[in-house]
Structures are given as structure tokens and as C-alpha cells.
Amino acid sequence: MAERIRAALARAAADLAATSETARLDAELLMAHALGVEREAMLLGRLDDPVPAGFAPLVARRAGHEPVAYIIGSRDFWTIRLAVAPGVLIPRPDSETLIEAAVAHFGRPGPARILDLGVGSGALLLAALAEWPQATGLGIDASAAAAAIAQANAERLGLAERAAIRLGDWGEGIDECFDLILCNPPYVEHDAGLAPDVVRFEPASALFAGADGLNDYRRLAPQIGRLLAPGGLAAIEIGADQADSVLALVAAAGLVGSVRTDLAGRDRVILVKA
Q1: Is residue 140 part of a domain?
Q2: Which domain holds residue 207?
Q3: Looking at the structure, do residues 184 and 215 belong to the same domain, yes or no?
Q4: Does 47 have pLDDT greater than 70?
């Protein structure tokens, strides 16, 4: 008798336990992808179906530390689903803290113009545009591969008319002010020990920022003041132990910053208000 999905999930979760802290969830996401259905639909009505032939190769890839998001080609973020590929950093739930901060600042009216520096997959910019249907935005990235993925995500989500994606070097050459600036720059020290899932597969250019992880903040801090419109907000992601250092860089640029923590209580975002 052919193996059923219920049993295959249990076996795959056991096999992936050495690779992942979320082995059961990983197995379920891979199975749903192999079936071509949503995970919830699989759990509610497909557990006694035969295992699809494509499941085992997906589990083997995950056992080799390849991130689930790259294997299935997508990641949910805020209220949207983004296509992701090895050319962009995989959006993390922690980064939703930036959107939460913006919602707290602007409320229902929202910002009119949004700037996402280092747009990557488009996660921050497109989540904000989905949150505020009247807003328009600009996403900048130095990576042509990332810009192409962000553009494709904007088109797939029906947001391309409100989202301009351009190649660029942080805020250089931008002569406009924005109500909301979002940024998740590289902030990992170059010799930091990262999980194999990250260091083997995600783009180094989106992770590492010099010996102390602060190289890009040194460039960004002096640019924020001229890019931020009156009454606006800049939300910049940081590593959990970088708040004091980034606040000092912000202060040296003549700005006042504050810290917002993520759901785990870790310092996650520096906020600058105009």
C-alpha cells in the first residue's frame, strides 16, 4: 500500500530534526508545495492521500540546509505573499516590526510617499503599499537580481502602478522627500557565525557589513534627514545588540532616534521622526 501523507510527514519531520528547529512545519510546507495546495487545505483534508512523488526530493534539499522559502519559491510577509529566490534575502517575521511601527505612527490615513532603501524582494515596500492603498513608493537596490524580483512581486500583487523599483546606491541621487522611509540594511559582522541555511544560500551582500556590522549605517545615517518629509518617520532595522551604536550614528547626523523592540523583546528598529 502506498505511503500516506500523514505518515510521510512524521517521517520527514524526524529526518529534518537535525537540520531545522521547525522540522514539522518545514515538512508540512514542502508537502503542501508538492501537492500544489495551501498547507491549511492539506492538513484539513489531504492527510490520508498518497504521498506525491515530488515530496522526497524537496525533503532532501531541506536536509541539505536549503531554506524552505527558496525550495517552494515564496514567503508570506505581513499581509502579502512574495516570490523569493537566492538573489534576495528571505523576509523574516522580525522585519514586520518596521511595518508595525509605521502603522502606529501614521494610523489609517497612512503616508503618501514611501521609500524603501535596499528593497530586496520588495517585502517592506509592498507590505506598506498593501496596507495603504492611496500611497505610492520607490524601492532602491544595488542588486539587479533583487530589483528584478521586487519588480516581479509588485506586478504579481497588482502594485506595480504604485511602486517604482530602481537600481541605486542607498539614497544617493534621490532629490525627493518621503513620509515613510523603510530600510533593512546588511548588519552582520563579517566574521559572525551564521547558520548553514543562511551563509550557504542567502546573498552575502544583503547580510555582511564590515568588521562591526555598521558600515551601511554609517552611510545611511547622514542621508535620512534630507530624505524625510516633515511629520515623517524612518524605520531602520538593526541587529539585537546594535541599538546604542546606531543611535549614536543617528545623533551624529543631527537626528533623534528611538528604539522599538520586536515580539521577542529584542531591539529591532531605530525610529527617526522628522
Answers
A1: yes
A2: 78-273
A3: yes
A4: yes
pLDDT tens for each residue of 127-176: 999 999 999 999 999 999 999 999 999 999 999 999 999 999 999 999 99
For 203, residues 6+ apart whose C-beta sits below 8 A from its C-beta are: 86, 87, 88, 89, 143, 146
- The residue type of 200 is R
Indicate if the pLDDT at residue 123 is higher than 70: yes
Same domain, 46 and 169: no
106 with 43, same domain: the answer is: no
pLDDT of 2 over the 90 cut: no
Q: What's the pLDDT at 1?
A: 66
Cell numbers representing residue 232 in the block: 515623517
Task: Report the phi/psi class of residue 158: left, alpha or beta, with left for phi > 0 and alpha for psi in -120 to 50.
Answer: left
Q: Answer yes or no: do 146 and 120 share one domain.
A: yes
Q: Provide the CB-side half-sphere exposure for 79 (13 A, CA).
A: 11
Do 85 and 132 lie in a common domain?
Answer: yes
> Cα separation of 73 and 163, whole Å?
22
Start-to-end CA distance of the chain, whole Å, equals 66
